[in-house]
Amino acid sequence: MNTIPDLEEKEQQPVTRCGYKPGDSLRAYEAALLESGAVASGKALHFSADILCSGGYDIWVRALWEFAIDHVGIVSPRLFVYLKKRIYELDELFKKYPEEGLYNSDEFHTRVGEIVMVLREVPRRPKLNWPKVGPETHMNGWIKNVAAASETAIIRRVWKAEGDMTVLRLAGSEYLKAITDGSLEKSLFWIKWLFDEEAHLRKETKGATLTTIARGPTGSTDVGHFIAALLAESYKELATKNMIRMAEEFQVLLDLWRGADSRISPSSRKRVLGIMSHILCEVPRWKVPAAPALIQDPVQVSRAVSQSGKFFREVLSNPVIKNRAVVIKLFRSRGLVDTATRKKQEKQSEFQEKLDAYDQAMNAYMNK
Question: What is the pTM of this model?
């Protein structure tokens, strides 16, 4: 007796163009990027097409940056330069053409396919392991008792007595020493310590920051801009000694921290500071202190890219979604509510059955 209302409710659920829940489609795309093999390549292209043709362009771009930040970083710094250029080109296409027309464009298919395949082919590394910073390190003048690093020319150029608190000079000196020593763990500790110290100060004083000097865009006094200034000066010093040759790559990372792409989340921007620290800790010790080539096997990438249009046409054979605004909102929230509800939804979801069926079809297609 209740089957008709249930069916109507199911039909009204916001889904992507291929009929997936938006959060499921996004997670499947991110998982496919990390998997190996031809089937995973097909899945990455399929779910990219589904997300894009369902209005999720901005969330797709955010996922590109997060993948590069979390899973690539120092092993392929050229990727950030590549993504900046390619995403700009796609942004321009979206300004120039109506979306539905763009989704049907061979040029769009090729550009998206190339980006996806480059991400799948670049080398990867584990996520940076950020050390814990205990609350006791923010009490009773702890920093004054442990700070022992000498001031350097960089600190004297960056730290300004007229607007910076003394704690910045002390912590900044320790941070620069960690970089000079090649200690990634210590450098990450001091980044996190400075952010935590500022958060503690904001809470205690209702909004005060560790500096009143506007080093960031739009007059921002965020402590991260003090760290970025130290990184920029450190890079210049190392480059002068010919100990590092990554000017373009490092500048792009600095720009990303400063907000060059608003689709990058604040937490990901902080991790960009970690990547720059990683570069300054390790690259000067490389035999060739420059970024390696982006792709080792461009032929394999071009072959896969040539098939990208098929995946878009498959998605576009489905009707345009009606509740686009809701789907986009669910993309942004990843379709999640609270953890308990999410686990229940995932357990009961039909998505895994669809995904298994798609894997079988993709296997059959790739094995022809």
Answer: 0.87
